[in-house]
């Protein structure tokens, strides 16, 4: 038997298995029941407009606030991490290691449940959020800041040393050099991994359901979906919620992919940018870590 | 003299740049082993030597991009190794040109020239732009004000880098192998600009492999090897009648 014949037989066998599986599922599945449980149009219709006006709106709002907070604190942490002052470096390292090492859910658990019960401390309401939503968002900011910090650190370190030497040789102070020369280049380099973190953040807002469970005005997509599933005793809200998430995240992941392709093209044509590969790896690692 | 940045205690009668017993080590490796050197105001001093001889490190010690391990660096009579010295104010008076140009790639040519003027010297936008345009004109690149560094050739990049340093109205200029990263046909345009600067009386310290430039433009030539000054003197004499055998060996390879 020739190599080619063996290959063809092997491939034919794989197709046979696949077809067998499809037929088995098609025959054995209780389609009527599945449709009743997951795809009831009248239930789906009842979810509107709240699924958009409350749930999707809250998901987007929590993401945006967490992004701004995580971005700012992450940037500060990255600068501390690279500071010549050792205690700043240690604080940043400890922070980053702790909050990257803990499950995000545990941190949100801490800000929303443990703080009020154990210490009587409540996160104050802010940015139009109730104290419950705020507690969840603060937890998410704390966690995402650790990830942002690592992205920024990689970006800052990727700026060639000659850039800060040129700035310093012109008499610029370390702070001026960082603000006007290093950071603008660093942030440009990390836009793809930053966008990636943004997508992760959207999905992680689901964890806030832990904090807002009972308050219907604060429910984001996951909390909303789970409450409605219980209310209707039916899984249709799960499908609607999932579709809402995908409607938000897929355009963004496509945007990241487009930016990476553009980045690769431009790095071929202009100055070689050996750092983006490293950053892309870093971003991927971020994904699997959670 | 540049009076934009106040710096007290300068004595213009002193050498523009002077090093006394300057030493620099990287870990166990001693790169500079006691350098005594002086550059008078208006003088052009070229530093040559094989790679690893410490000539770039010496240049980088003059504006403290490298912190000396021992000895003094005096700029117009002031020991700038002294930790009480405002090094940013000193650097603002010393222009530096790098082998790799180091233009800021996120800014266009005009903004490359304006940034330090505005943030260090505190010049207003209009004044900074005027100075920038004058300096670009001087290096023959008036038509490139709006270009981005990625759109320029190596020779143009280096001329912009020189103009950027000159925009600060420095008292002196340091050149760290300014033509070593250039294609051979682009070396001339950069050397022309440097020649013009020397003619105008700029104090210059130039680490270079361009022996022709050293001979023609330099007032003084320093040959370094293994972290010491092996030989120095009038460029033509050092290049034509090297006394030290190391100098002879080096020149026989590069000339």
Please specify the SSE layout and strand pairing.
The complex is a heterodimer of chains A (290) and B (255).
Chain A: H1 3-28, H2 31-38, H3 41-47, H4 50-81, H5 86-101, H6 104-119, H7 131-158, H8 161-169, H9 174-189, H10 191-204, H11 209-212, H12 221-232, H13 236-269, H14 275-289
Chain B: E1 17-26, E2 29-39, E3 44-48, H1 55-62, E4 70-75, E5 78-79, H2 87-93, E6 94-97, H3 109-119, H4 125-138, H5 154-166, E7 172-176, H6 184-199, E8 203-207, H7 211-217, E9 220-225, E10 228-233, H8 235-240, H9 245-254
Parallel strand pairs in B: 3-8, 3-9, 6-7, 7-8
Antiparallel strand pairs in B: 1-2, 1-4, 4-5, 9-10
Short description:
The complex is a heterodimer of chains A (290) and B (255). With 290 residues, chain A is mainly alpha-helical.
Description:
Chain A has 290 residues and is mainly α. Chain A has 14 helices and no strands. In chain A, helix 4 crosses helix 10. Chain B has 255 residues and is α/β, with parallel strands linked by helices. In chain B, the strands form 2 sheets. In chain B, strands 6-7-8-3-9-10 form a 6-stranded mixed beta sheet, with helices on both faces. Chain B starts with 16 loop residues before the first strand and ends with a helix. Chain B has 9 helices and 10 strands. In chain B, a hairpin with a 2-residue loop joins strand 1 and strand 2. Chain B is globular and about 55 Å long. Classes of the chains: A mainly alpha (290), B alpha/beta (255). The interface between A and B is medium-sized, with 20 and 29 residues.
């Amino acid at each position: 038997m020739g190599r080619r014949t063996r290959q063809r037989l092997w491939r034919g066998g794989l197709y046979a298995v696949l077809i067998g599986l499809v037929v088995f599922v098609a025959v054995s599945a209780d389609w009527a029941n599945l449709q009743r449980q997951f795809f009831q149009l009248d239930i789906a219709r009842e979810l509107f407009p709240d699924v958009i006006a409350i749930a999707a709106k809250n998901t987007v709002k929590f993401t945006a606030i967490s992004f701004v907070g995580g971005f700012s604190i992450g940037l500060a942490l990255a600068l501390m991490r690279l500071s010549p002052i050792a205690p700043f470096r240690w604080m940043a390292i400890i922070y980053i290691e702790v909050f990257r090492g803990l499950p995000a859910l545990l941190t949100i658990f801490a800000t929303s449940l443990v703080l009020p019960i154990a210490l009587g401390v409540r996160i104050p309401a802010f940015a139009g959020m109730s104290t419950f939503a705020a507690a969840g968002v603060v937890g998410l900011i704390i966690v995402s800041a650790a990830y942002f910090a690592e992205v920024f650190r990689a970006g800052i370190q990727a700026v060639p040393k000659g850039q800060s030497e040129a700035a310093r040789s012109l008499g610029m102070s370390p702070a001026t050099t960082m603000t006007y020369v290093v950071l603008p280049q660093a942030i440009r380099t990390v836009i793809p991994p930053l966008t990636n973190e943004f997508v992760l953040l959207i999905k992680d807002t689901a964890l806030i359901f832990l904090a807002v469970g009972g308050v219907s005005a604060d429910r984001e997509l996951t909390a909303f979906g789970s409450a409605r599933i219980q209310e209707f005793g039916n899984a249709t809200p799960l499908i609607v919620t999932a579709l809402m998430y995908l409607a938000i995240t897929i355009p963004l992941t496509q945007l990241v992919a487009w930016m990476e392709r553009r980045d690769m093209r431009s790095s071929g044509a202009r100055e070689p940018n050996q750092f983006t590969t490293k950053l892309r790896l870093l971003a991927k690692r971020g994904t699997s870590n959670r | 003299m540049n009076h934009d940045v106040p710096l007290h205690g300068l004595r213009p009668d002193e050498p523009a740049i002077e090093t006394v017993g300057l030493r620099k080590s990287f870990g166990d490796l001693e790169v500079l082993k006691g350098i005594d050197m002086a550059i008078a105001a208006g003088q052009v001093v070229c530093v040559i030597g094989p790679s690893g001889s410490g000539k770039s490190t010496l240049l980088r010690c003059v504006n403290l991009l490298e912190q000396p391990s021992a000895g003094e660096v005096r700029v117009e009579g002031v020991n700038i190794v002294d930790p009480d010295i405002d090094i940013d104010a000193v650097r603002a008076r010393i222009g530096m040109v790098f082998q790799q140009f180091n233009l800021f790639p996120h800014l266009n040519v005009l903004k490359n020239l304006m940034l330090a003027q505005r943030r260090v010297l505190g010049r207003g936008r209009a004044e900074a732009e005027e100075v920038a345009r004058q300096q670009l004109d001087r290096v023959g690149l008036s038509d490139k004000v709006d270009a981005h560094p990625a759109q320029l050739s190596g020779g143009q990049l280096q001329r912009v880098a020189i103009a950027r340093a000159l925009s600060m109205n420095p008292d002196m200029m340091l050149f760290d192998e300014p033509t070593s990263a250039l294609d051979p046909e682009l070396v001339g345009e950069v050397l022309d600009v440097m020649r013009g600067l020397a003619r105008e009386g700029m104090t210059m310290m130039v680490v270079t492999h361009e022996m022709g430039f050293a001979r023609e433009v330099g007032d003084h030539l320093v040959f370094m090897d293994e972290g010491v000054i092996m030989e120095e003197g009038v460029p033509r004499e050092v290049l034509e009648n090297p006394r030290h055998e190391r100098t002879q060996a080096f020149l026989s390879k590069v000339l």
